[in-house]
Each structure stands twice: as structure tokens, then as C-alpha cells.
Amino acid sequence: MFSQALLDVLQFDILGILLLGVISGIAIGSLPGLTATMGVALLLPLTFGMSAITGILLLIGIYFGAIYGGSISAILINTPGTPAAAATTLDGYKLAQRGEAKKALMVSTISSGIGGTISVFFLIFFAPILADWALEFSAAESFALAIFGLSIITSIAGDSMVKGLITGVAGLLIATMGLDPVSGFPRFTFNEVNLMNGLNFIPVMIGLFAASEAFKAMESINFQDKVKVTLSKVGLKWPEFKRILPTILRSTGLGTFIGMIPAAGGDVAAFVSYNEAKRFSKKPEEFGNGSIEGVAGPETANNATTGGAMIPLLTLGIPGDAVTAVLLGAFMVQGLQPGPLLFQNHGEVVYALFIGMILANLLIIVCGLAGIRLFVKVLDVPKKFLTPTILVLCVIGSYALNNNFFDVWVMLISGIIGYFMQRYGFPASPVILALILGPMAESNLRRALVMSEGSYGIFFTRPIACTLIILAILTLFTPLFRMLWNNYKKRKENTEAI
Amino acid sequence: MRKAEQIVSFIVMIIAAAAYIQTMQFPSLEGFETGPSFVPRIYSIILLVLGAILFLQSFRSSTAKLPEKVKDTLIIMGLMLIYLFLVEWIGFNISTPIILIIFLAYLKVKNWISYVAFPIGVTLCIYFIFQVFLGVPIPEGTIFG
Q1: How far apart are CA A228 and CA A101, in angstroms?
Q2: Which residues of B touch A203 (CB under 8 A)?
Q3: What is the pLDDT of residues A106-116, one digit of tens each?
Q4: Is A424's Cβ below 8 Å from some Cβ in B?
Q5: Where are the strands (E) in A165-211, listed by range?
Q6: Residue A457: exposed, middle, or buried by beta-carbon count in 10 A (0-12, 13-18, 19+)?
Q7: pTM score, two decimals?
């Protein structure tokens, strides 16, 4: 059956479709405002007339490509093309600012491809076991995972811990806008119909990152014309690759596991992996200033979630993230029912998908590396043309989400606020972290408390939840204590010097 | 930076307090279920404390003014506001070339060919990628119903 599947896939038309999918996915992912979920959902109808393997592989190509593609704009213009690339901006853009965009893009490409490929192997060999484990995740565990993700706020706060925490908590507060997830009561909506679902975080993200960056570029538009002054031709060197390999392997594991958990996807995995990469790094002070580990970590993890998310989808029929939810629909349109029987009834399709997925990830490496010369050309476009184009893309990207012009206004306001935030040293990343993870944390907290009938003990009696919460507390307070300790030492030195 | 930080700290504290006051209008807990005000209140209290800390810390910042020039940026922000109103009114496909021409003019672009090629080129590309290839609707404009 395996060899039959191999023959099925290695046909020109299927490989061609896969390539088309990957390239389209990369393009879609790199455009801020278009997400992997949107790309797959929008092109799903194209697959109705195709055979099962062709259609699903097209969508898989788009899915994998888009999750990688988000890193391109994250690195080049400090705007995550997809939410999963939000953590990539932290170090990726700094590398680009230093002229090392090529290196950053190479790291991202290779990490994404490796992470994705290994996660498919997890899928192939361990799917049933891992699926059972993923089902252990209930509200308490999801809450603990969300809190763990949020705890990295102190690590990405940048120079001022207070300012980082302010933007983060403000983001958490803004995330509560809309209908309360448990009781349905409208919070902070001020009778505005558009706020019933709260602020959509994608227009906020586009505004805070892309628009504010464009506004900032205006400051120097008349004397610094290009985005980059000198571009280093140096790519990734072998010793550097060896240095980031542990990060890649660790992040693959993290990404695959987080991908398996229903409702946790690439964005959560990227931030968690960034934090772990920093924790285990020999040079943590490089993070936030252009560390290649800081790019490898999130990019590996977000692509690793693709394989991980396919695990519950294929074995149990439960989607592991938003995109696999759409893919579930694609399967059913083709007459395939994902779940335990899929392997029995349509084994050759499943094997073909496995092979296709591995090929898709390898194609990401090929296309990504080949395309770097093209991507980097973006930096050659004079700012006078690039900046207005970005602003126009922000508008259409924010609108594309829900066809609601209100989102475009949200984007612009976020952009204006984001510009002033940058100016006065308030970091934007904690806001995105809060908008993504805040709702997940709150709804699961309250659901867990309902399940435990009000007892907070549930978070300590359940081992996975308890572990994650302890890790969260450690992650949250370690940078805080380190900062306070450093300040204390500095003051001691100053007084002793006198 | 100090003045800005002080202003921001006040804004933050006011928002935190306002949010807390708003939550007093939310329905309260029933039994052992946590109500809609539970989590927002935690956030607003933390935010209030952080705002106060920021205010105290601001005395360590310099009182020098920031060197970056904002005039161009503010004008671009104004142009964006105009752009959004235009798009809502006459739609994306017409407003975009118009605003791009205005942008180029403000940025003192000399090459007159760009004034034609660039706005039309960008709008066409977006039209093809978003509307034709992806099927994503583009703002039509209220004037067209």
C-alpha cells in the first residue's frame, strides 16, 4: 500500500499542484491580513472538482506554505504576515535592520521546513498514542497552557518591564471586550454592534505592526530613502546552523505537541517556543536584539504545529487548529470521514497524504531558499513607494477578514496608537500576546471552575495543569527578579564608587 | 520622555479606573460561577498599580525632548484618515489611485511617470490578487449602494 501511495503521489500533476499550493501559500502568508486559515478557506472551493489526494494536498501546500510565509514580512517589514509569525518579528526584524535579512530568511526557511517535516514523522509513527494524550487536555490544562504562554510577557518586555507589562495587561483588558464567553453578557461594548465580538486581533496586529512601522518610516523619509542601507550577502553558515539545531529540535517537539491540542495553534506554539529558546540559550541576552535562535524557535514551532494539528484530525476527526477545522470540511467534501476508520477504509489516501506533507515541507525549503533573492528585493524599493503600498495593503488586509469596514478603522487607530507607543518605548508584542491568549485563558479558567464547582484546587490536582502553571509562574517572575537584582547591584556599585 | 511617561501613566490609571467602574454594571456571580466582571476587574486593578509605578519611575527619565520629527508622520496619518473616508464613500478601487497620487505628491516624487504607473499598478495588482484570485470582496463604497 505504501508503494502504491508513493506512485500515486509522484505524478507530475500532483507534484505540480503541491508546488502551486506551497507557492500560493507562501504568497498568501506573507501578505499581512491574509492568514493561513483564510487562504485555505478561500481556495477550498477550487478543490471540489479535484480528486481527493489532489484537492487535499493543494490545501495542505497552502497551509504549510502560509505558516512559513508569515515570517517573510515579519522579518522584512516587522509585520507578521500571519499570527503564527508574531514572535518572529522580535528577532527577525532586528536581524533585517542589521542588514542580515538574508540570514534571517534562511534560518526561517530551513527551520520551518525541518520542523514541518519532523512533525509529519510524529504524525506517521505516533499518531494514535499522541491523540489519546491530546484528549487529556481539558479546560484546566488549556487555561494553564494559555497562562504559560502569557507568562513570557516579562521576557519580551524589552527595556522597560513596567511599560511591557502595561501594554500586556492593557491588551488583556481590551481582549475582554465583547460578549462574555461564559455568560454572553456584552462587556465594554458601549452599544456598538461591531464590538459584540470584541476587537478582532488581526486588524489590531496589522495596525500595531505594519501601519505604525510605516508611520515611523515617515520620520526619515526625506533623508533615508531605502529601508536598508547595506545588505549583507552572507547567509547562514554551517557552524551557526549547528548552533541552532538544538533549538530547532526542541521547538519541533513543542510545536507538534501544541499543535495536537485542539484550539492551540501556530501562534501559541511560536511564543512558547521563543521563550523556551531563550531559556535554554547560552546567550539569552541576544534575544530581542537579533538572535538567530530567536527566529529558529518560533518558525520551527509554528510549522511543526501543522503536523501536530493533523494528528487529532486524522485519528479522531477533531481539528487541532483553525486550519485543520477547514480541512475537515475538505475531507468531507471528498467523501472521506476523518477518524479511526479513515486509516482502515482509505489507507492509500492517508499514506499519500503523509508523503505529500513531507514533500510540501521540503518544497518550502526549496522555494524559500530560492525565493530569498526575490524577497530581499522588497528592501530595495524606495520608501516613498514602499510605505504607501504597505499602508494600502493594511487597509485591504484588514477589510478582507470580515468584509467589515469597522476593522479598517480599528487598524488605523491601532496604527496611530502603535506609532506613539513605539515613540515612547512601549512594546507592541505583549498586546498581541494578550489578544491571542487572553480569551483562551479566561474562558478556560471559568469553564474549569464550573467543572470543579468553584474549587481552585483543580489546577493543582491535575498534573499537566499544575506543571504548566508552575512553569508559568517561574517564567513570569524570573526576568522580574533578574531585573530587580540587576538594579540593586547597580545601585550598590554606584554607592560604593562614591 | 518624562512628561510623556507621566501623561501615559495618568491615561493608564484613568482607563483602569474607568474599566473597573464599568464592571460594576455587570451582573454579579451566581452560585459558584464566576461572573463577567471577575477577570476584567483583576486586569484593571493590576493596570492601576502599574500606572502608578510608571508614574513613580518617570522621575528617573530625562526631561529632554525626543529628537525624531513627527510632522511628516502626522500629515501621513491625516492622509490615511482622509483615505479611509474616501474608501468608505467611493470604494477602494477609485480611492486608492487617488490617495497614492497624493502620497507621491507630498513625498515630492519627481518622476512623473511614477504618478501614473505606480497608483494604477498597485491598484491593479491588489485587484487581481484579492478580488480575482482569492475572491475576497473589496470595499465598494456607500455611494454605489
Answers
A1: 10
A2: none
A3: 999 999 999 99
A4: yes
A5: 178-179, 186-187
A6: exposed
A7: 0.83
